[in-house]
Amino acid sequence: MKTRIGLLTMFTFAGTIALACADNPLADGRDAIDRFTTNPSFANVKVNDSTRVTAIAVNVHGEPTGDAVTASACDNKITIANDPTRTTFEPPERFVVHGVTAGASCLTVSAGGKQATVTINVVP
Q1: What's the number of domains the chain is made of?
Q2: pLDDT one-digit tens code per residue, 62-100
Q3: Residues contacting residue 46 through CB under 8 Å, at least 6 positions apart
């Protein structure tokens, strides 16, 4: 006798019950971006100085998806550039944030229709 219960399939053989997964529960959402891991999530940078911010698009299991991540500045207090020292064949994506004018700003990272914001505080 074979009976399906949710994601489990139950087999009975002469009074013995065996359970088996019908689907891999960890396969769901493996390729879809759920969120970003950024380091740091908040940064201070001096005017005319720079710092680096890394960003990785991850799935619901916290694993990198491999999607290309882009970054943009929220305003003109900072400029953003791809880090020229980063190798392009694996995550994380790394960006150079350059402070232009003192004040609060942010960096927006995006990939696959998802976005995250890193607060950048430009100090004198």
Answers
A1: 2
A2: 899 989 999 999 999 999 999 998 887 777 899 999 999
A3: 99, 122, 123, 124
Number of residues that make up the chain: 124
CATH number of the CATH domain containing 85? 2.60.40.1080
Strands 114-123, 42-46: pairing kind: parallel
Task: Work out the number of other CB atoms within 10 angstroms of the CB of residue 103.
Answer: 15
Distance (Å, whole) CA 93 – CA 71 = 9
Residue 34 Ramachandran class (φ > 0 left, ψ -120 to 50 alpha, else beta): alpha
Cis status, amide bond into 92, omega within 30 of 0: yes
Question: Which tokens go with 87?
Answer: 């190798």
